[in-house]
Design a protein that fits this description.
The chain is α/β, with parallel strands linked by helices. The protein has 2 domains: 15-328, ABC transporter transmembrane region fold (Up-down Bundle), CATH 1.20.1560; 349-587, 3-Layer(aba) Sandwich (Rossmann fold), CATH 3.40.50. Helix content is 65%, strand content 10%. The protein is built from 19 helices and 12 strands. The chain has a 6-stranded mixed β-sheet, with helices on both faces. A hairpin with a 2-residue loop joins strand 4 (403-408) and strand 5. Helix 2 (30-62) packs across helix 5 and helix 13 (452-462) packs across helix 15 (488-502). 36% of the residues are buried. This is Multidrug ABC transporter permease.
């Protein structure tokens, strides 16, 4: 089994574009963001009441004050604590509603963009790159938006309010900010400078690992058949260790951040104690006021630590968001001036002098010409690796030929809008998918306006109506991963029913009955024949009985057309197809 290398990753947005995209989303929620700022500022202010009153209690006790004064202050502290918690809770709740809405918008934007991208572009990037952005990166952004951003807002409010509180006690206590601020600023700049590259490399390594894990999983039967588990496991090990190494680099960066934070805390406490000692000695402030100042600074540990540590989540989230925005900003490959309709001169689907290779060094198709006339069924046969599936993807518009041309009804497929081409040329492979949702929704994806009668008609045509009527809820039955499980044969029948609902001009069938087994293959061949009747079809034949019933057969060998003609003509010629047919007929 060969896993094609990643040649052309999906783009990553730069920092400026990423921030601009996020800000554009946040602007839609200005009013609620204002509520968040007010609530968190109020929470920070109420949070200062407790240390200030504790300092006052120290003075009351030092001067043999009345116990009632202590109890009064204790009651005020309790009320302040409740008010602080209420404001913080309200701010966090509103912030969560805003940021979750933004995250949902980002997720929907990315999914919509990916679904509009040309399949060839997605394949060139690798399924792992797309999947990691849609899952891991979205999760990272969710963590940053749902946790780091609210924490940052609360920490910023706490720092500002606490600094004002220190100044209210005595402006000289602000010396602690003069001494510690440069250290924190240098630490933050060091982190911001190094972290994006570290986290971007970590996300890229995770995408590579996903790519190399998905390939063997998707081709598990091939892996087992050719005993490829060992080599592929070692490849996965290499890419997994690459993720570990990148994660360790991020951890080292985090530890450096923690060490500098601890140093700043030590220096700040020392400055507060020295300033307080001198001010108390000069009679400028009381011991209680100095105690409050120290408690204020201790209260800064948490918001400053949050500010620094959320940089970690924010940098990781920003790296992930850049990968998501990079996809969102991609053009969908469908130019506005592409026609929504196209003429048809009756020539069908024609490929002329096609040359193609996934890499320039390894060409697969060499000067291949194939015509599928209007209403004609053409079978494509050949050994594994001959280029049959590759030719099918080019005819379906999934890949673009390096040389040669493909026309549909006399019009170049490059001049036809992708959405139009997708409606006129359908590709059906053996790797079909049952979408999660009701059976009606699964089928109506091909034609959303189809009513129940039309859906049942399609099911009747492919021979799946009796199965569908046997379901508890009929068309309302939930199928897919979390619903009624559908076997391989029924899944293919549902795919054929979608083709019938789509009603394309040309259907390309790529060994769609290969996984159904002998009994199932006969049923599926009947289903396919019913759907293909009256339509042009290119059939990549898994069984030569499919080729024998076709109007014409094209035999591919090593990426070239070696024989072409009807079944009777090729058997009469006595060439390679005749030999294959004789061997197959003898052993069936």
């Amino acid at each position: 089994m060969t896993i094609r290398p990643i040649h052309d990753r999906l783009p990553v947005a730069d920092w400026r574009r990423t921030v601009a995209h996020l800000v554009a989303h946040l602007r839609r929620h200005r009013a609620r963001l204002a509520v968040v700022v007010v609530a968190m500022t109020a929470s920070g202010a109420f949070g200062l009441v407790t240390p200030r009153l504790l300092g006052s209690i120290v003075d009351v006790v030092a001067h043999d004050g009345d116990a009632a004064d202590v109890l009064t202050r204790a009651g005020l502290m309790a009320l302040a604590a409740v008010a602080c918690a209420v404001c913080a809770g309200a701010g966090i709740a509103v912030a969560a509603s805003v940021f979750e809405a933004v995250l949902a918008d980002l997720r929907e934007e990315m999914l919509a963009t990916v679904l509009r991208l040309p399949v060839a572009r997605v394949e060139a990037a690798g399924s792992g790159d797309v999947l990691s952005r849609a899952t891991d990166d979205v999760d990272k952004v969710g963590e940053a938006i749902g946790t780091a951003l609210p924490s940052m807002l609360m920490a910023q409010a706490g720092v500002v309010v606490t600094v004002i509180g220190l100044a209210a006690i005595d402006w000289r206590f602000l010396l602690v900010a003069v001494v510690t601020a440069p250290l924190y600023i240098v630490t933050a700049r060091m982190y911001i400078r190094r972290a994006p590259a570290v986290y971007a490399a970590e996300r890229t390594a995770a995408a590579d690992r996903a790519h190399h894990v998905l390939g063997p999983v998707q081709g598990l039967p091939t892996v087992r058949a050719f005993d490829l588990g060992g080599p592929l496991s070692r490849r996965i090990d290499r890419h997994s260790w690459a993720v570990v190494r990148r994660s360790m680099q991020a951890t080292v960066l985090q530890n450096k951040l923690a060490g500098r934070l601890n140093l700043g805390e030590f220096i700040g406490m020392t400055v507060i104690l020295l300033v307080g000692f001198m001010l108390v000695g000069d009679g400028v402030v009381t011991v209680g006021a100095t105690t409050a100042a120290m408690l204020f600074f201790l209260a800064l540990f948490d918001p400053i630590g949050q500010l620094m540590y959320v940089l970690d989540d924010l940098q990781s989230g920003a790296a992930a968001l850049g990968r998501i925005v990079g996809v969102i900003d991609m053009p969908d490959g469908r130019a506005d001036d592409q026609p929504e309709t196209t003429g048809d001169d009756g020539s069908g689907l024609v490929a002329r002098n096609i040359c193609f290779g996934y890499t320039p060094e390894h060409p697969i198709l060499h000067d291949v010409s194939v015509t599928v006339g209007a209403g004609e069924h053409v079978a494509l046969v050949g050994m594994s690796g001959a280029g049959k599936s590759t030719l099918a993807t080019i005819l379906a518009g999934v890949h673009r030929a390096d040389e040669g041309a493909v026309t549909l009804g006399g019009t170049s497929v490059l001049d036809i809008g992708e959405s139009v081409r997708a409606r006129r040329v359908a590709l059906l492979t053996q790797e079909v998918h049952v979408f999660s949702g009701t059976l009606r929704d699964d089928l109506a994806m091909a034609r959303p306006e189809a009513d129940d009668d039309r859906v049942w008609q399609a099911l009747e045509k492919v021979g799946a109506a009796q199965w569908a009527r046997g379901l508890d809820d009929g068309l309302e039955t939930v199928v897919g991963e979390h619903g009624h499980q559908v076997d391989a044969m029924v899944a293919q029948q549902l795919a054929l029913a979608r083709i019938d609902l789509l009603d394309p001009d040309v259907v390309i069938v790529d060994e769609a009955t290969a996984d159904a087994g002998s009994a199932g293959a006969g049923v599926l061949e009947e289903s396919a024949a019913a759907v293909l009747a009256g339509r042009s079809a290119l059939i990549i034949a898994h069984r030569l009985s499919q080729a024998a019933s076709a109007d014409r057969i094209v035999h591919l060998g090593r990426g070239r057309v070696v024989e072409e003609g009807s079944h009777a003509e090729l058997v009469a010629v006595g060439g390679r197809y005749s030999e294959i047919w004789a061997a197959w007929a003898k052993n069936r």
